[in-house]
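Support request from a user on the community tier.

User writes: "When I paste my structure tokens into the form, the page sometimes reloads and wipes my input. The last time it worked, I copied everything first. Here is what I submitted, just in case something in the input itself triggers the reload:"
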């Protein structure tokens, strides 16, 4: 199909091997796209990535995460709150101690894929 739509930025001189109009119908709703963008913003902080990577290895309490990362417990607690709000981690209570872990295998897959992508 040759490009002949007026609203396009194409020069009309090349052939398309796809129907760009059909992509519009496949696009997720704007609210879902905004939610995806917010999720990626959470991944945009290296401290949160360090926490997620650490939790991909073992379930830990705040004091252990802080020790591994060389951070204060309040700083780690704040980041854990952000990660929990984004549904990337979960917690369980054992007595007075709260242990944190990844919410599900999807989070580990995302971290692994990002690492793999950068190693290519």
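"...and here is what came back when it finally went through:"
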């Amino acid at each position: 199909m040759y490009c002949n739509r007026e609203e396009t930025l194409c020069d009309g001189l090349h052939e398309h091997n796809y129907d760009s109009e059909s992509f519009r119908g496949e696009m997720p709703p704007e609210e879902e796209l905004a939610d995806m963008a917010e999720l990626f913003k959470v991944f945009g902080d290296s401290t949160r990535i360090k926490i997620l990577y650490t939790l991909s290895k073992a379930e830990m309490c705040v004091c252990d995460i802080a020790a591994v990362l060389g951070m204060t417990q309040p700083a780690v607690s704040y980041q854990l709150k952000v990660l929990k709000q984004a549904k990337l981690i979960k917690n369980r209570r054992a007595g007075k101690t709260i242990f944190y872990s990844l919410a599900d295998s999807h989070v580990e897959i995302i971290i692994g894929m990002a690492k793999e992508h950068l190693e290519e």
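Agent notes: The reload is a front-end session timeout and is unrelated to the input. The chain is about 55% helix and 10% strand. The chain has a mean pLDDT of 89. Escalated to web team.
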